[in-house]
Recover the amino acids of this structure.
């Protein structure tokens, strides 16, 4: 006997229809120019208890929720190493990258998984090239980056399996925010390092490929290859290079153009870091 | 790589650096810049696995790789049993073309662990190595498709890499070559069932096909190899030893895979039909950044034997200058990054036709696959 006082659901369970047409919604497509990076917001000195800190927000698309990225970084130290640690003529750098448990669609555990550890190693390589570590012998510094909101919070991201490409963007953001936090902590660097990402994306019919800066995997049909660099603009040097993917066979020099576009993206982020730092200096002087 | 500190003095490091930056470079073990260390390799050593290999370098470091496969039910991202039926009805009746279905293959079906004695298995360096090898394998998207059985089932492949001896140098090339051989010798049981039935396999091991098909149908990609290349001054060195890594300005791990294209019958000589494709690269933090700096004798009071407090200020200035400008023969750890031109010349040297990669692949081809 059905309960007639309430509006009951259907008797058997149903699933919403799934349309597998493989077409991208026109509104979801990339509307930025291929060489434009998304607007960023960077603020240093957000955590009073740390010796340096920074917060970076990558703006989501207009009218969208949750396709941006929010990262925070704290720098602790330089402080003396524990007595048990062996002598080091340099500052010992340790980096931690952690997704907050709620940062992605699929919940992350509290223990760092292998991709987070891998990101930490990349970040360490990127920062170690920039630090003048021999000015702090016998001391250690901890750089902790937390990703508060990841890019792939949408269901689409899980369905279309684009997380592997989003990792590149996460690393780019981590490098930028860590560099600003290190500058805020007043640790000597040869230059402020900044992160940039470029990707080779296939067009709809899969025939021709083009290079875009700061790619969002959801906005493209498929990504063929991606590259993330950590770049020192004043020295014109790369401290970390990460490339993966499949380049179309005839163009042998495509990796060069991909890297140079990634460098171009990191030049853009570098402008942001210096603007944010000079703003911070201006506010302390007043 | 924190545990890989060498016990070389700053003077030794400076000497090593200058002899390696000569053209041609003089390496401590007498190799040329593009020469690999000799190695012995064998495959099919572990009867309990689907494929295995062992590679032993001349300096005594040895790695074993075992590949094991299990059947697993494919779980949908939407978490519903009905999903498959929806897809089936949407794509018009069952048994649609398999190529289309194989797009559902996922990289997660490959599990890779690296074990290095003396290092914890959750150590950042070990995880970095495992991710590096895994990423190279999955980069072209072809590998996951090989693990697809039907819409409901797939193979889960466990690739376990064990370094038997403590690492004498950065073990990346050794592990990569061993993985390459193990994957080439991997066989999966022959499928007897059809369509989306529960899979049934032929129990004749002799009939089992290789994961990477042999010469007959040689077209398609082969497992990747990863080469470690360092730049010291202007010279580019392949397969660096521990001492060479300790003075390297930059280190780059380049993964490439060989794609064989079949062009009718005239491609009898396989070597000429080989095409190398870059699949991934990563900079590796060179341990040279952690080496102790040298002190020039002008700034060393103990050497000059005189200490004049009035000239202390002058000497401090001198110290400052020393920090900024490297002096010939005084070791200083490299600072800053690498110019892209250097990285690019490394990549070119790796991808060069008839270069080191070709030589290594030729060598690996000579290994008897059982």
């Amino acid at each position: 006997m059905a309960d007639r006082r309430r509006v009951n659901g259907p008797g058997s369970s149903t699933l919403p229809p799934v349309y597998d047409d493989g077409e991208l919604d026109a509104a979801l497509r990339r509307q930025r120019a291929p060489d434009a990076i998304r607007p960023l917001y960077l603020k240093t000195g957000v955590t009073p208890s740390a010796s340096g800190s920074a917060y970076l927000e990558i703006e989501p698309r207009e009218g969208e929720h949750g396709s941006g990225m929010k990262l925070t970084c704290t720098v602790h130290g330089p402080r003396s190493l524990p007595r048990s640690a062996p002598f080091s003529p340099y500052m010992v750098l340790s980096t931690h990258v952690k997704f907050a448990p709620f940062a992605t669609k699929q919940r992350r555990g509290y223990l760092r998984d292998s991709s987070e550890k891998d990101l930490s190693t990349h970040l360490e390589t990127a920062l170690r090239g920039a630090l003048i570590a021999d000015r702090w012998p016998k001391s250690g510094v901890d750089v902790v980056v937390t990703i508060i909101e990841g890019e792939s919070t949408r269901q689409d991201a899980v369905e279309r399996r684009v997380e592997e490409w989003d990792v590149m963007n996460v690393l780019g953001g981590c490098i930028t925010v860590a560099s600003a936090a290190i500058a805020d902590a007043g640790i000597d660097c040869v230059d402020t390092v900044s992160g940039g990402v470029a990707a080779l994306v296939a067009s709809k019919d899969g025939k021709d490929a083009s290079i875009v800066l700061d790619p969002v995997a959801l906005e493209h049909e498929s990504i063929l290859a991606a590259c993330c660099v950590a770049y020192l603009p004043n020295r014109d040097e790369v401290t970390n290079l990460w490339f993966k993917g499949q380049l179309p066979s005839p163009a042998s020099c495509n990796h060069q153009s991909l890297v140079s576009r990634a460098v171009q993206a990191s030049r853009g982020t570098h402008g942001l870091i210096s603007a944010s730092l000079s703003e911070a200096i201006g506010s302390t002087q007043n | 790589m924190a545990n890989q500190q060498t016990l070389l003095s700053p003077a030794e490091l400076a000497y090593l650096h200058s002899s390696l930056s000569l053209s041609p470079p003089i390496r401590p073990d007498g190799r040329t810049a593009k020469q690999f260390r000799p190695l012995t390799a064998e495959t099919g050593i572990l009867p309990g696995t689907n494929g295995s290999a062992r590679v032993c370098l001349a300096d005594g470091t040895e790695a074993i790789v075992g590949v094991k496969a299990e059947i697993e039910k494919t779980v949908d991202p939407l978490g519903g049993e009905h999903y498959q039926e929806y897809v089936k009805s949407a794509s018009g009746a069952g048994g649609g073309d398999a190529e289309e279905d194989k797009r559902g293959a996922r990289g997660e079906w490959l599990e890779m662990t690296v074990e290095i004695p003396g290092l914890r298995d959750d150590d950042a360096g070990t995880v970095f190595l495992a991710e590096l090898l895994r990423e190279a394998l999955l980069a072209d998207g072809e590998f996951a498709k090989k693990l697809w059985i039907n819409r409901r089932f797939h193979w889960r492949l466990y690739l376990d890499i064990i370094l038997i001896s403590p690492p004498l140098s950065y073990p990346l090339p050794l592990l990569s070559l061993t993985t390459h051989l193990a994957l080439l010798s991997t066989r999966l049981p022959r499928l007897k069932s059809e369509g989306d039935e529960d899979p049934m396999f032929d129990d004749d091991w002799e009939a089992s096909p290789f994961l990477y098909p042999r010469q007959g149908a040689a077209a398609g990609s082969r497992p990747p190899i990863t080469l470690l290349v360092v730049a010291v001054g202007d010279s580019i060195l392949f397969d660096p030893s521990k001492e060479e890594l300790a003075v390297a300005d930059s280190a780059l791990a380049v993964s490439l895979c060989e794609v064989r294209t079949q062009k009718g019958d005239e491609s009898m000589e396989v070597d000429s039909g080989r095409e190398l494709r870059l699949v991934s690269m990563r900079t590796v933090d060179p341990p040279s950044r952690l080496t102790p700096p040298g002190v020039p004798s002008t700034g060393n009071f103990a050497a000059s034997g005189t200490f004049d407090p009035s000239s202390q200020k002058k000497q401090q200035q001198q110290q400052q200058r020393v920090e900024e400008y490297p002096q010939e023969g005084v070791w200083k750890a490299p600072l800053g990054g690498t110019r892209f031109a250097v990285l690019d010349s490394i990549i070119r040297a790796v991808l060069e036709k008839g270069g080191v990669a070709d030589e290594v692949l030729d060598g690996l081809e000579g290994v008897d696959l059982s």
Remarks:
- Chain A is about 25% helix and 25% strand.
- Helices of chain A lie at 114-128, 155-160, 163-185, 254-285.
- Chain A touches chain B through 53 residues (CB under 8 Å).
- Chain A has a mean pLDDT of 83.
